[in-house]
Amino acid sequence: MCGIVGYVGPRPSQDILLAGLARLEYRGYDSAGVAVIDGDGALGMRKKAGKLAMLRDSLKDAPLADGSTGIGHTRWATHGGPTDVNAHPHLADDDKLAVIHNGIIENFSALREELLADGVVFRSETDTEVAAALLGREYAGNGGDLQHAFRSVVNRLEGAFTLLAMHQDHPGLVVGARRNSPLVIGLGEGENFLGSDVAAFIEHTRRALAIGQDQIVSITPDAVTVTDFFGAPVQAEPFDVSWDAAAAEKGGWSSFMAKEVAEQPEAVANTIRGRIHDGQVVIPELDGLDELFIGINRVIITACGTASYAALVGKYAIEQWARVAVDVELAHEFRYRDPVIGADTLVVSISQSGETMDTLMAVKYARERGARTLSICNTQGATIPRESDAVVYTHAGPEVAVASTKAFSAQITALLLLGLHMGRVRGTVADASADVAELAALPEKVARVLESEQEHVTQLAGWMADTRSVLFLGRHVGYPIALEGALKLKEISYIHAEGFAAGELKHGPIALIEPGQPVFVLVPSPRHSALVHSKVVSNIQEIRARGARVIVIAEEGDAAVLPFADEVIHIPLAGAMFEPLLAVVPLQIFAMALATAKGLDVDQPRNLAKSVTVE
Ligand code: F6R
Q1: Residues 199 and 269 in one domain
Q2: How many domains would you assign to the chain?
Q3: Average pLDDT across the chain, whole number
Q4: Cβ neighbours of residue 114 closer than 8 Å, sequence gap 6 or more
Q5: Are residues 333 and 242 in the same domain?
Q6: Which of 310, 326, 477, 502 satisfies CB 3.0 to 4.6 Å to 299 for a cystine?
Q7: Among 257, 356, 483, which residue has the most ligand 1 atoms within 8 Å of its CB, making it the best to mutate?
Q8: What range does the domain containing 154 cover?
Q9: CB of 411 closer than 6 A to ligand 1?
Q10: What mean pLDDT comes out for the span 191-206?
């Protein structure tokens, strides 16, 4: 949601801003704009509702004088519809000052009233214009000190925001601030950048600085200054981005989603790399942090959407290996009741982006309540890991498609690693060698599913392009995968889909079964539990008897399912905890192929944003 880019340096900024915004498109947006201080020191601005192409066309038709200081924005509408006027930047101080913003300013109505009473005339319905007008008033009132004015404004704002501003009387300077919303600095040679995430500037530099909560940054071509909201200097942490611009390119694939599904063996392998030593799982980032795992009596895993389904797999793994009770809580439900947590609770948060506001707020809440916090995250320099006591990074590389695929696999991998790491530290895993061997074998097995089932599942999706509803059933760790299969289908193909625990069938959902109803059933290996396997086979018989069209995902050689299945998708043999990583792949391919068959944009489904930075 909302993408932010800032640039100061020797080069003309418009192309840099537009390219940065294009790389942030994946976050989801409905309008875009840029402001530039041109070579004569005048501020120019252009903004357009719709896709970035609309803005580009407008700039082509009526070029804006270029200059080497600029800010750019993609907006996902919150206050006020997605119109040209509501798009960012917003101007103030006789259009000499430009402001862009991500987040929600919660006290904007009171501030707006105050400014209206002062005679300010607003052009848009946005909270951002209120911040711009406030900054304009401060700036005019303090004799033209932009940094000072900016500090006093951010101290008056409540809510979540990343705010960037520049003034035509200060070419070569962009100021930014962040509270509960993302902002990263890109460090160049004689030029500097700001971005919602590193994708905004990755083609220019991989050297970055993470800015903390409630901090302000000023960039000029030669200097970066970070302070707190009161002006006290802060030491920001530099880091090197571990991927390059090519990793975030489509590179010949039909969609980012297709590329990311195919990248799963690598995502899993990269997440495991460096974390297995002498047949044991040892996560180097957790070195010296054993106290996080000892003396706890409960683990809560909190996340949203797909990440919450990874969390459910993690529950099974951590309970089995670390012998501690695990609950999974949707982050947006967690802090709005009075959960029983304290110093003996470990709260694990999972987030691909590391910026999901619901998850961030859950982490902050857990910390305030004295819980220990650990995050699993795919994005370096993101807010959630910074707010946690420890972080285990998934190394899936940049995920651009809105629907999460490789990040999901990497999250499950990280949770399996965490479970085995905790089991070792807590002394509850005597011999991890078999599980470690399973982990090591995963990338090759995921690759095998991709290779063997791609065509079959794509064909299946083609036949089902007119289907109006699909159900997914699973038991044990297959249950979260059923939920994930349904979510993938809903979000990119707009088909009604539901995932159920197979055992729930007779408690209600079986009423949905009518002749021809497609149902995917995830069948656990009989080698893990003959009992659970036989229960799922019975469930298949029950729905088959009522006319369901049954598509089974089962391990190679599972003959028991054959008589009752209309279609069988095979996955390689794997240990119980490892099957989800194989079983999810055909479901991702199915959703993608069905959406493609319906002519839909699989990378940017309607109404969705990749990074949900508002509650
Ligand atoms: C679904 C999807 C979302 C995210 C959820 C959390 O494909 O991508 O459900 O999983 O919005 O996002 P992160 O992991 O960034 O916190």
Answers
A1: no
A2: 2
A3: 95
A4: none
A5: no
A6: 326
A7: 356
A8: 3-247
A9: no
A10: 95
